[in-house]
Amino acid sequence: MRYLHWERITSILLILPSAIAIAIFVYGFIGFTGFVSLTKWNKLFPDFSLAGLRNYQGLLANPRFQIDMRNMVVFTVLFLLTSLAIGFLLAVLLDQHVKGENIFRSIFLFPMAISFIVTGIAWRWLLNPGSVEMGSTGVNLLFEKVGLNFLKTGWYTDPKIGIKAVAIAAVWQMSGYVMAMYLAGLRGIPEELREAARVDGANELQILYHVIVPLLRPITLGAVIVLGHIALKIYDLVVAMTGPGIGFSTDVPAYFMWDTTFQANRFAQGASIATILLVMVGILIVPYLTYSLRREAEV
Amino acid sequence: MTAKMRSLREGLRVRGGSRLLIYAFLIAFAALYLMPVYVLVVTGMKSFAEVSLYRMWDLPSGLHLDSFKKAWFGGFGFEGISSNFLNSIYLTIPATIVSAMLGSINGYVLSKWKFRGSDLLFTLLLFGMFIPYQSILIPLVQVLYKMGIYGTIPGLIFVHVVYGIPICTLIFRNYYATVPTELIEAAKIDGATIFGIYFRVLFPLSLPGFVVVMIWQFTSIWNDFLFAVTIAQNPNIQPLTVGLNNLAGSYIVEWNVQMAGALMAALPTLLVYIFLGRYFMRGLLAGSLKG
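Above: the input entities. Below: the structure tokens describing the complete assembly.
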């Protein structure tokens, strides 16, 4: 009982409002959404009679949802791999005592400060292919000017490319973030390790591959988690840049969710998509959260 | 020995022609990253007579501000973004300040007044940072409606404060963890209370933490679209991202006006980034759980 003096109580009281808010607005709401996904509420006025898993079965059989899931996988893989590759390359280059490092770093990172809506608008026009009759526009026009005609494509207007064009804009926005993370990691690697490898006869590329890459693995993991959950949730960029596209070629589950819930009033279907999204993000995040907090507790 | 000392931070050893290659690569990438900005600025500055998609990359003949004026004040058949801009300011500033204060208190308790289960509580809070907000939107709309703040700016402020709790708590907790516990213990021996320690010891040291959290919240609230478009259906209270998206989605608005609007919408967060970039970085890295 002696531990329970008033300051202990005060400290708990101080954090209580936030704890209650999160308990209701995160966990309670997630629970309610999960419940709605099991009901027949697919019109404006709530109908809480149970439908079992019928909404989920309907989704899995829904062509739009199938395309969305495929788009999401393509987008996530492309966005992750390209951002990691470019971010790593830029970080390694910037770590070579480059003159003007600050300027380069700022240029690579500034897109992070901009909203996906602005990014979407800019890239909608950049990747607007133009037309055969009127001529090329945007990036295609640039290719034409420098004689790289074979690179011209329909970008997001071509259903075969679709979501991949959206990934280009996302990489532009987020790869600088990966660069910043890797650069911080590279700066934390002691020079002695590189020196020891050199003494052992390793060349610079071998050092990069056998010493530096393994040491940066925790950062790679962190970047995969952060970029991965952004990719699964991507919504704003699609809204501003393309919309669902021809034959849903640029549609994603998050877009379908908003559309079906708040435009078509199919609340139960929207709740099912939201729950599927949440489970996917959870699979990505929960192991990482428990892992990094356990590691922190050990330190 | 001195040579070794000098080589302490040299990265990989790349010299001669390869160094030129490094600069060539960096400059090429820099050009690539600046390309959208170039188009935004150049297009915004062109006069209506010289705006053509097919001359998108050409420089303007002079500085014309017509597109900016039209994007800001509106034109025939469409609204400008000036009122949205104000709405975003009314929304972002209070939400940022309240978020930072809450985060500071939570971070203080979770780093210096740990109790049984406080680490678990922290983990549970953190999860709220990663959830797809789609999974809370349906009940959120209903609860805000019942609270009488659906479709209002105070409603949006409330939402951003609540869902900002995880990240703000995380940044402050990690920041306060670097404050030596001896300072706290010494203050306790001097008879300071939990509030006394906060106001006399921790708060005066908190400025960098506040700057990081406020930049983070300012940027993410200013740039938020999902909450804004869901909660602010009424045009009178729509924040900037929604107004801009309407502008860009309208077929009667010329594309140069859209570009000018996008540039103005990006300006506040870009300015913050340019002048406070160091703190912006810290917030970013905190977002990946590395304090």
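Note for the figure: The beta strands of chain A are 130-131, 135-136.
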